[in-house]
Write the structure tokens for this entry.
Amino acid sequence: MGTSAGAGSMKKWAMIVDVAKCINCNNCVLATKDEHIGNEFPGYAAPQPAHGHEWISIERHTRGSGSMVDVSYVPTMCNHCDDAPCVKAAGDGAVYKRSDGDAHLLDQGWTKPRCVQACPTGALESMHVSDENMQALAAREGLEVLRPEFSTKPRVFYRNLRRTYQCFIGGNVFRTRADGSQENVEGARVELSIDGVKVGDAQTDRFGDFKIDGLQGNAAKYRLRIFHNAFGQAEATGVLHKSDYRGAIPLTGRTS
Ligand code: SF4
């Protein structure tokens, strides 16, 4: 988008990637290849080889199993770190980074790089912004960077990255009627506790499904307690390592 965001210290280019909007169409990958394969931009980049390089690649993250699965796509690229290890490793100036970023088309007056132009969903957003305003925006919107433990100050930020590392617990609640037939139960109340502390709740939908999201997969012991005023109750326990679809859970205690 090429947004200029406020006054302050020197503005630099940054990218925000919204994981919730990426649909894995690979338009950005192709746009980057189209721009760089066979094309040299002196002072910016050597030509990209036709094979073996992905200057943008899309990571796939899948959660759940059975009939409760979701997928997130994470476009990854050079993070344009302000404290770039590759620059230090080169040591001889063979790799360097301009203090305001590196953007040959933007230097020519383009308002956004080609990958941003090519993205049909708005998952990629380029910004021209000071460090102070970028940090404020990241704090306000909960933006994250990849591998923050390396402290390399990436200038590629991610929105909704938690979809890739948080877990959910889900299931399908049903009852058995007096005649032996079964039906999904809508409106059952589901409570989740971890290590004895209630951490979430949900209500089953018209298909009897529930999903409690935003959990940490840290091998915690959990307990599900399910209640329905008319149809009874159920309980399930487990250990949360990753997203856990419990499948069909029968209510017991009452039949009608
Ligand atoms: S163009 Fe946009 S939606 Fe398509 S893969 Fe790239 S980031 Fe995702």
